[in-house]
């Protein structure tokens, strides 16, 4: 464990296996965001982190590693959550709990979002956050098309976690059922991209939620190994072991400056479609918990928090409920909350989860 921690704490870890070969001389580069060379320093030197972009071999002995513990957070979602983490680049480490890009990443509304604040400000322990969220995401791109085809849906994001190596608890990411939090904030684009469609919106919400919770079930799934009388081959399914889930419901997208432009009747319709989706989401969360012994869930009611703040914006330090892009605005742009709004969300999530390992 101590050699692992020393890796985690003294070098900028790369997922690529480029490392190992050449020994880097003193003052040569041994790490960094776009660096792909060796990470091994010549004897008598060690790889010292200088910045997200540069680590170098310096004479001396590596300082004692961070004594831990380290906990983990795996968020999934859309631009309300994304920090543009690339799971194939530098992984979360003691110098940057997001791994990449440089903290706090690139966000939908500009500046730091709730993932940044909860990882680094309202955290009650050191958290390595692997943020799989992707801007523009919908739950299933075949059900609600994202704004461009390259967007990774919730299905894609969970599959990236499941098949990209992290799910298997590798030495680089020693998460356990107990120390890992999984979170999902999705639905903004599903609702904004489909509320105006004809047909039974409640039935459509159930279709979306069926797929959403099938993915959650995949994350819970434990190692199963069995053979049956009809086959001589033993079968197994991959262990996953997620046990702690934070769900965030769909916020007041109807109050975004973008949707305000659509007019009052569009706003009213979207508001009611979202409210119905959120009611169904809450009952899915309850049944997911009930049918999975050992699973803990939290549900953050983002919708109510947006309502509370936007009904009395000045009480929360905002100039009004509709301006965007300026100092003191709730909205960072016409579809995303600002950094100041995200700070309030992060604090409220930390309050909801008070007493947990993470916040
Ligand atoms: C993610 O990082 C890998 C390794 O540095 C790089 O090859 C890839 O192009 C990056 N992906 C994106 C979308 O930037
Ligand atoms: C919160 O995270 C930061 C950044 O990783 C870390 O320096 C700090 O020690 C953490 N706080 C606690 C209470 O562990
Ligand atoms: C996504 O939606 C399409 C269209 O309904 C469906 O055929 C497909 O099975 C869905 N994908 C998943 C993984 O649920």
TrEMBL record:
Boundaries of every CBM1 domain copy: 22-58
Superkingdom of source = Eukaryota
Q: Kindly state which keywords UniProt assigns to this record, in alphabetical order.
A: Signal
The record's annotation in InterPro entries points to:
CBD, CBD_sf, GDSL, GDSL_lipolytic_enzyme, SGNH_hydro_sf
UniProt xrefs under Gene3D superfamilies: SGNH hydrolase
Keyword Protein biosynthesis among UniProt keywords: no
**Gene Ontology MF term list:** cellulose binding; hydrolase activity, acting on ester bonds
Would you indicate the residue range of the signal peptide? 1-22
One protein family per Pfam: Lipase_GDSL
Q: Can you list the GO cellular component terms from the UniProt entry?
A: extracellular region
The Gene Ontology biological process annotation of the record reads: carbohydrate metabolic process
Q: Does the keyword Magnesium apply?
A: no
Q: What is this protein called?
A: CBM1 domain-containing protein
